[in-house]
Write the structure tokens for this entry.
Amino acid sequence: MTTLNLGIIGTGLAVEKLHWPALQALGDRFRVAAFCDLNTEHAQHFADYSGADREQFTRAYHELLQRDDIDAVLISLPIPLVADVLTVALESGKHVLCEKPQAATFTEANALWEVVDDHADQVLMIAENWFYRDDLRFAMQLLQQGAIGRMHTASFRRLKQLIPRPGEFSSTPWRWQGAYEGGPHLDGGVHQIAMLRMLMGDIDTISAQVQDANETHGGASQLSANLRFSDDAIGSFMLASPSLPMPPDEDGVRIYGSNGVMSVNNERILVWRNGQTEKYVVTQQDLGYISEFQNFYEAVTEGAPVIGDFFQSWRGMEFVHLALESAATQSVLATDRVIAPLRRWPIDLWLPFGETELRVDVESTTYDGLVAG
């Protein structure tokens, strides 16, 4: 098995909490050959827990990208810094796995299309781990197989306090400053947007309202939108991140179809149909990070298609941008049909290279009647 020499640009919390555990699990496929960070304390901490060679550290990402022994790079930087580094990384000839989103504004993301197209022979993945979650892939397959018939309505809601907490992503100062479009919605909300598009298909129109009820983080904290999907299904999207403590609340998405109803909430999936309740519990939960790196590796070594590509991340940014513009103009706005045609299932179901069937560990139970499960 080929081992890719990986350079890491940015060694903060995302690498420690999300990426490094996945790289450890795929240790026969990736080797950290170099790492870069302006913050030498972050770099030393990374070297301590990962065992990376401290001699392979540099504060200058240009130096890392000029090395011939680096096959690919992981870019894990604050949002306002990503676009420039992504551009240089592609121009250096490296394969790139880049944390989402790829830019601080939608305008900046649009400006990246030219450089992405110019380097189409290189693998570029924008790290949206929710495309690879086993629970969402299993729910996606159930819907594609017609589990609840034709989908006509979806309702998503998530309300959770957001304040700086030591050791968590909310603690980083660049998130407080919010020097990027959409605040917490561009940073974290794109995950929920990705989930909705996985399950319902692409979004056609958006009508939104926003408010700011959080003095600790920049950008509008509350977003509520009415949606129409590309097959004429409709839906609502509510994502709120206030600073006020919130009582326990079950978030997630509920989808209403012609023959039944589905609820997707983390690893638990409920299907109500034919007077029965079917409960599925997906027993994995690394939240898709290992599969994400596996897809990247197979794209580089086997030519496998990338599920979390630039276009899919661009669509998530487009949603945030249009929601803000809709709120500002009090109008219904359509998503772009020129970049790529809207289609019923805009996100492919990821399978490991060479596999033809979804393999997910699921515990299932069936109840008589429509129960909470």
